[in-house]
C-alpha cells in the first residue's frame, strides 16, 4: 500500500530500533522544502532519548528553511501588517528609523481603515478611493500611506497569498506645483541680527546666557547647505580651519528615536551624501569662534553639543530658532529653508550641477524640484538679442 504523501515541512511516523552498536536509533521520513522526502535519523542511549534527539534535529532543520506563512486571502489586513513588520525586521535592509516611520504611518494612516478587512476584500477600487480621500486632506499623508500600503500588499503577492497588488493600478497622486521658498540676502541679515541680539543677552531674564551655538549653526548651514542633522553631527575631526581652504566634512547625522537616547549616526541621510565642503569666510569665522568658546575638544567630540556634552536634538534646535525669531517678529523660517536658500544662490550664480553637488544630490532634478526657487525675471540679454534679430530698418 502506498504511503501517504507528506506536506512540505512535516514528518511521518517515528520508528525506533536498536542499532548494531547497542544504541537506539530513531528515524522518520521528512518532506523537505524542495518537495523531496528524505529519511532523517538520530541515536540515543534509550529509545526516548533517541526520539527526543530526532525531534530536536527536525526542529533545527525546519528553522533553517523559509518560514511558511499562515496568511490566506481570508486573513485580516491586521495580520498582514504584523507579518510585514516581522519580515522587515528579519531582512534588516532598511534603517531602524525608516522602519519605525513605516510602522507609524501604517498604524496611524492605513490600519484604522483596513485592519478589519480580509485581504481578498482589498481591491483596486477600495485602495484608490482611500488614497484620493486622504489626498484631499493632505498630499504628504496620502503619499506616505500609499508607500506602506503598497509594500505590505506586495509582500502578500511575493508570498503567494494574493495573485496581484491592487496598488499597482491606483491612479497617481497629483499635487499643486510647488515653488521652493528661499531667503534673500537682506532677509538672511535680518535673521542674523535677531539671533545676535538674543545671544547678546537682550531681554534676558534668568537662567544661563545663550552660548552662541545657534548663530554658529545657522552660519554653518548657510555656508555648507547641510541639513540640520548633518550640522549637529559635525565632529572636531571633521573641521579643518588651518588649511589654505578651510573645510568641513559632512559624514554623519543626528538620530532621535522614541524611547532611545539621541545619537550620532555614522553616515548622512544617504551614504552617497558624504562630502567635504569648502567654507566661505563667514562660516569659517563662526567655526573659529565656536572652537574658541568650546575650549579643548577631543577629535570625536561634537562641534555643537549640550552643556552635558550630549548631542543636540534637531527638534530642540528647530524649537529654539522658532522661538528666537518669533520674539523678533520673524515667522516661517525653518532650518531647511537655509538649505534651499544656498541651493538657489549657487544656481543663480553658477549652475544647477554645482548646486546639486553641494547639496549631496546625485540627480539635479531633485535639486530643481525641491530646492531652487524659480525666478520670474528672464535674463535681460534676451532684449539685446531680439534687438539684433528684429531691429527696424530705417
Please give the structural blueprint:
Blueprint: E1 15-18, E2 24-31, E3 37-44, H1 47-63, H2 77-91, H3 96-114, H4 124-137, H5 139-158, H6 185-199, H7 213-224, H8 228-232, E4 239-240, E5 247-250, E6 253-255, E7 263-265, E8 275-278, H9 281-294, H10 314-327, H11 335-349, H12 352-359, H13 364-370, H14 381-390
Antiparallel strand pairs: 1-2, 2-3, 4-5, 5-8, 6-7
Helix pairs in contact: 2-3, 3-5, 4-5, 7-9, 7-11, 11-12, 12-13
Protein name: Integrase
Pfam families: Phage_int_SAM_3, Phage_integrase
Domain Tyr recombinase: 178-387
Cα Rg? 31 Å
Look at the structure and give the mean pLDDT: 89
What is the CATH homology-level superfamily of the largest domain? Intergrase catalytic core
CATH architecture of the largest domain: Orthogonal Bundle
What is the makeup of the main sheet?
Answer: 3 strands, antiparallel
Which stretches are poorly predicted, pLDDT < 50 over at least 5 residues?
none
Shape: elongated
Highest-level CATH class of the largest domain:
Mainly Alpha
Structural class of the helices, strands and pairings?
mainly alpha
Q: Order of SSEs, N→C?
A: EEEHHHHHHHHEEEEEHHHHHH
What's the structural domain tally?
3
What is the topology, as strand order, of the major beta sheet?
1-2-3
What is the percent of helical residues? 40-55%
Total count of helical runs of at least 4 residues: 14
| Total beta strands | 8
Proportion of strand residues = 5-15%
In angstroms, what separates the terminal alpha carbons? 112 Å
User: The CATH topology of the largest domain, please?
Assistant: hpI Integrase, Chain A
Amino acid at each position: 500500500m502506498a504511503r501517504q504523501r507528506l506536506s512540505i515541512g512535516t514528518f511521518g511516523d517515528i520508528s525506533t530500533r536498536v542499532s548494531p552498536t547497542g544504541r537506539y536509533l530513531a528515524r522518520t521520513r521528512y518532506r523537505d522544502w524542495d518537495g523531496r522526502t528524505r529519511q532523517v535519523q538520530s541515536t540515543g542511549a534509550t529509545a526516548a532519548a533517541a526520539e527526543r534527539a530526532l525531534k530536536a534535529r527536525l526542529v533545527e532543520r525546519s528553522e533553517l528553511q523559509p518560514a511558511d506563512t499562515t496568511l490566506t486571502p481570508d486573513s485580516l489586513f491586521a495580520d498582514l501588517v504584523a507579518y510585514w513588520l516581522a519580515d522587515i525586521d528579519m531582512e534588516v535592509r532598511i534603517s531602524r528609523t525608516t522602519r519605525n516611520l513605516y510602522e507609524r504611518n501604517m498604524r496611524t494612516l492605513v490600519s484604522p481603515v483596513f485592519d478589519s478587512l480580509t485581504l481578498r476584500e482589498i481591491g483596486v477600487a477600495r485602495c484608490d478611493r482611500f488614497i484620493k480621500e486622504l489626498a484631499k486632506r493632505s498630499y504628504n499623508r496620502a503619499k506616505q500611506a500609499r508607500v506602506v500600503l503598497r509594500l505590505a500588499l506586495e509582500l502578500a503577492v511575493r508570498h503567494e497569498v494574493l495573485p496581484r497588488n491592487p496598488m499597482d493600478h491606483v491612479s497617481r497622486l497629483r499635487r499643486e506645483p510647488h515653488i521652493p521658498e528661499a531667503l534673500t540676502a537682506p532677509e538672511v541679515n535680518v535673521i542674523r541680527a535677531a539671533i545676535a541680539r538674543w545671544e547678546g543677552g537682550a531681554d534676558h531674564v534668568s537662567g544661563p546666557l545663550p552660548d552662541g551655538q545657534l548663530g554658529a549653526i545657522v552660519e554653518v548651514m548657510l555656508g555648507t547647505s547641510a541639513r540640520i542633522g548633518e550640522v549637529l553631527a559635525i565632529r572636531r575631526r571633521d573641521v579643518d580651519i588651518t588649511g589654505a581652504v578651510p573645510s568641513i566634512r559632512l559624514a554623519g547625522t543626528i538620530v532621535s528615536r522614541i524611547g532611545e537616547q539621541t545619537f550620532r549616526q555614522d553616515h548622512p541621510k544617504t551614504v552617497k551624501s558624504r562630502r567635504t565642503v569648502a567654507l566661505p569666510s563667514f562660516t569659517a569665522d563662526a567655526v573659529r569662534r565656536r572652537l574658541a568658546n568650546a575650549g579643548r575638544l577631543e577629535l570625536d567630540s561634537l562641534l555643537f553639543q549640550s552643556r552635558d556634552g550630549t548631542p543636540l536634538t534637531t527638534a530642540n534646535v528647530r524649537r529654539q530658532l522658532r522661538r528666537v525669531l518669533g520674539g523678533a517678529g520673524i515667522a516661517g523660517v525653518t532650518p531647511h529653508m537655509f538649505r534651499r536658500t544656498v541651493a538657489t544662490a549657487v544656481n543663480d550664480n553658477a549652475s544647477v550641477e554645482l548646486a546639486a553637488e553641494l547639496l549631496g544630490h546625485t540627480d539635479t532634478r531633485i535639486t530643481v524640484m525641491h530646492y531652487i526657487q524659480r525666478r520670474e525675471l528672464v535674463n535681460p540679454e534676451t532684449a539685446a538679442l531680439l534687438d539684433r534679430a528684429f531691429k527696424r530698418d530705417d
